[in-house]
Amino acid sequence: MIALRAVTLDDCERVWEWNFAPDVRAVSNDPTVVELDRHTQWFVTRVPAGAFWIIEVAGFACGSVRIDGGRISIALARSARGKGIGKRAIAAACAAWARPVTAQVREDNQPSRAAFEACGFVVNQNASEHADRVVTYQWRP
Ligand SMILES: CC(C)(COP(=O)(O)OP(=O)(O)OC[C@H]1O[C@@H](n2cnc3c(N)ncnc32)[C@H](O)[C@@H]1OP(=O)(O)O)[C@@H](O)C(=O)NCCC(=O)NCCS
Asked: What is the distance in A from the centroid of ligand 1 to the CA of 82?
């Protein structure tokens, strides 16, 4: 069982650690590493906007998921991956959002592609933003 809870300011550093882990940047559309100070400036403005959750399993925080302008992003701690947590968290976030969601995934990010596909995301062939080696997925409630 997983639970999503709204992110709080106390989560700033753990979210940074998950999102900017080298193996996460390596599979991200944007490999830029942001320093903690800059992340914090962004985080304090982003928290009140909502649609930003901590993923918990048995009360332990193990990743975050966010929907921003209808686009979803997710990162789990390495130890939490490959156990079905990602797909459950994506499904829960989409259900909470209850509006169309897009995901942009690197073509070679197989776990991420499989997780989104398992949640009913389909490839959007007509995506307006095209980047090399990136697949755009669409989900509708
Ligand atoms: C992408 C991510 C969220 C997926 O969550 P997860 O909990 O690891 O994935 P799940 O265990 O829910 O598995 C989802 C699907 O991926 C498959 N999968 C999991 N790990 C895999 C791997 N290493 N290689 C291939 N497939 C994999 C599972 O079999 C499952 O497919 P199925 O439903 O057809 O059986 C997580 O791995 C992660 O945070 N990765 C690093 C950051 C990242 O890539 N974020 C997404 C950027 S778009």
From this structure: 6
